[in-house]
Amino acid sequence: MDEYMINYETFTTKIVYDFRIGYGGIGDLIKFFMHTLGLCIKYKYKLFYLVNDIHIEYFLKLKHPQLYIKKEDMGCDIRSIDTVDEIPSLHNNFFNCVTPQLFYSTLNFDYIYNIQDIFYFTEEVVINRGVLLYPSVSNYISIHLRLGDKYLETEKQFIHCLNDTRPYNEEALFKFIEENNKSTILFFCDNDSYKQNIKNKYKNIIITSCSICHTSLVNSTYKQVLDTITEFYLLVNSEKIYSASYSGFSLVASRFKNIPFISLPN
User: What is the pLDDT of residue 159?
Assistant: First the structure.
């Protein structure tokens, strides 16, 4: 990344990463940005992150502030990239804008750089860790279970996909917890009722006091997004992450510092 930034101002072709509410959660923001960064390094393009003033941007920031750009600084020379086939031969007199949707069918997780070398958590997240998890714990493993948008405890009119459910094997989940009853386990879930039930069932399970939300929903509050990103921060600092169902949230968290990521049987 240092070499890219040393040559950054010499690049003339520009790509602008445009991430807005409704485009996905924190995992999506990170993974699609990292993918775009890889393309910019490959083709020697100047990458910008468009500031959209969304809650996530207050808690997760780029280590290189010169990558940020505001819409008013782009003028009228803006065009949208409609297909990935355009990327190798972009116009250098435009701000060429990409959104995560462009990469849905081509994304991979073979990042050139570690996520922790690109992004950092703000002090507000670090402080909030002590609020959500008191007393503090260290040397813990994490389990993350994403039940899906159908089970989000929020107003249904704001949910993108009411049919979104993530299959998981509850028997395998219980077995894992029971076999690791000597370990400190942080349990994360997108449904508070289920999370509380697991906490009540097993003494070695620890949960946060997070106000659960999906950061992609327009009704998610500042505090809810802060809490969600704080849980992501806790996952990032686990010794290992065990995934009970598929979710980019936990997968990207494991890639932040390249900690072990293990999928439980489904």
Answer: 62
d(CA 183, CA 241): 13
- Domain 123-263 top-level CATH class: alpha beta
Tokens of 204: 């070695």
Q: What is the pLDDT of residue 161?
A: 67
From residue 126, alpha-carbon distances to 60, 121, 208, 234, 264 in Å are 11, 7, 14, 9, 29
Helices (H) and strands (E) in the chain, counts: 8, 12
The predicted-structure confidence for 62-100, as pLDDT tens digits, reads as follows 999 999 999 999 988 899 999 999 999 998 889 999 999
Please give the Cα distance from 240 to 222 (Å, whole number): 28
Instruction: List C-alpha distances in Å: 1 to 46, 119, 230.
Output: 13, 12, 26
**Chain centroid, CA 88 distance in Å:** 27
CB atoms within 10 A of CB 229: 24
Q: Domain boundaries in the chain?
A: 2-121, 123-263
